[in-house]
């Protein structure tokens, strides 16, 4: 993975995290800046890691689903593939439209399916299924962790003593 791809993935992760954290800040205006910056950086690194794992997970699913072993060394992000991902992450802000965000992710996934199809014997539709399953699986896993963190970090109100 080149340095440009790493920077694009980090920026996409930060943008995706900002799209999720800004509504939280609007509901809680008194949050300390250090906490906000820490949340933003931590969430941005997690999102960037998930983006980086998407092709690897799709490649693994293709190896499991395919009858013949894959012909290449693996599927990796290129600058041409990561740039639309950054665009979709920038558009992830809730007010700019989740449908457009979803459509861009489908476009990025479709562009990942092409190189995966050429490297395996699955064909384009099989590769697209692997890319979609990998993206959905990673998305569900991250959402589960996100909800767990929110649940664990929410202060509990003490029960009234009667």
From TrEMBL:
UniProt keyword annotation of Transmembrane helix present: yes
UniProt KW keywords: Membrane, Transmembrane, Transmembrane helix
Residues passing through the membrane, by range: 35-54, 85-110, 122-142
Keyword Transmembrane set for record: yes
Protein name according to UniProt: Integral membrane protein
Organism (species): Streptomyces lanatus
Lineage: Bacteria, Bacillati, Actinomycetota, Actinomycetes, Kitasatosporales
């Amino acid at each position: 993975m080149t340095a440009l791809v790493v920077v694009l993935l980090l920026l996409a992760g930060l943008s995706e995290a900002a799209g999720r954290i800004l509504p939280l800040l609007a509901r809680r205006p008194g949050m300390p800046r250090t906490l906000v910056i820490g949340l933003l950086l931590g969430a941005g690194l997690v999102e960037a890691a998930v983006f980086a794992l998407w092709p690897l997970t799709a490649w693994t699913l293709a190896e499991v689903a395919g009858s013949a072993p894959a012909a290449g060394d693996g599927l990796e992000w290129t600058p041409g593939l990561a740039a639309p991902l950054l665009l979709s992450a920038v558009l992830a802000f809730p007010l700019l439209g989740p449908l457009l965000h979803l459509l861009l992710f489908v476009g990025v996934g479709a562009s990942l399916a092409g190189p995966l199809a050429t490297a395996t014997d699955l064909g384009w539709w099989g590769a697209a299924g692997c890319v979609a399953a990998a993206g959905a699986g990673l998305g569900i896993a991250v959402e589960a962790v996100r909800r767990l963190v929110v649940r664990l970090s929410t202060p509990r109100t003490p029960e009234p003593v009667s």
